[in-house]
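Chapter summary example.
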Amino acid sequence: MDEVLSALLRTAVLGRLDLLRNLATNADDPSRAALAYTEIPRLAEGWRELLSAHQPDQRGRCPECSGWFRARTFPCSVWTTAHTHLIAAAPLPTPAQNSR
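The structure predicted for these 100 residues follows.
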């Protein structure tokens, strides 16, 4: 049963991300503005919650990524992925650039 729930969770989350990307890329300007108003705060809060769970402990290790046999030092892959996509990534193309 856990496999079924895991598959449903994965499908729902990835489907939502696909929908948001499609709307951000293809919707008209008022719809994209409404999308930004509602979804950016939700996504920012989600990132904050995820990053909070991956804060290093007093030994500089990520408590979520470290296992019994292997300690994962900070920054873990969650923090490096956040940096890549939130700080270092190039801006996404606008819909006008996509049509070229």
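To summarize the output: Residues 53 and 64 are 7 Å apart (CA to CA).
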